[in-house]
Amino acid sequence: xxxxxxxxxxxxxxxxxxFGPMLEDQQYDVDWADGGAGTMALLPARHFDLVLLDxxxxxMDGCELCRSIRKINDTIPLMMLAPAGMKAMMEAFAAGADDxxxxxxxxxxxxxxxxxLIKRALPAERKYNLLKIGDIVLDNDSKEVCKxxxxxxxxxxxxxxLEYMMKNKNRIVTREELAAGAWKEWRRNKPGSLSLHMNxxxxxxxxxxxxxxxxxxxGKGYLLAEN
Length: 227
Fold this sequence. Notes:
It is a single chain. The protein has helices spanning 13-25, 36-45, 62-72, 86-95, 107-121, 124-128, 156-167, 175-183, 193-205, and strands at residues 5-9, 29-33, 50-54, 78-83, 99-103, 130-133, 136-139, 144-147, 150-152, 172-173, 214-217, 221-224. It starts with a strand and ends with a strand. The longest helix is centred in the middle third of the chain and has 15 residues, at 107-121. Helix 3 (62-72) packs parallel to helix 4 (86-95), helix 7 crosses helix 8 and helix 7 (156-167) packs across helix 9. Helix content is 43%, strand content 22%.
């Protein structure tokens, strides 16, 4: 499961310097272009999950560039950044923008709108096959786990255990239920197997940048807690 990649078309280095680190902190990969030529070179060459387009790329109008992007890709989510006002907003939507954010913009609103646009663009089956708790995302299609946008290498057994815990988050799951629900059988010949896999899984999901989520509840079982 790849991290979402954003193409940010922004000629102003001050804005790039301000919002670039903010987006990277949110675990987005950001490629930068300062105008039409760079954009037209990057779009066909790489996959992007979202385009952020400033209204003032050098050498052409932002709406003109938006229409050019739509000729190459008419499905990619695209947000226009332009001065506040009904006229600018209507021009952006008419050119093919999916969303419009008035300048000057607030970074928190920018991140929130990005999340909505990317999520909205996911096919229905992809939305269904993703499980998420905190910054942990489990992808049932690719059988991959990511934490904080980075892939976590898990074994097949660990994947099944985590999937069951995520489907039963915020409640204590007994060892017997977990083994039967995740593995479809209780591994009587390996009494320490479940504990070993859960300990390994906990270590792989633990880091210094986000809250701990997976707990052993003494004498009862395991808990995957959202808070």
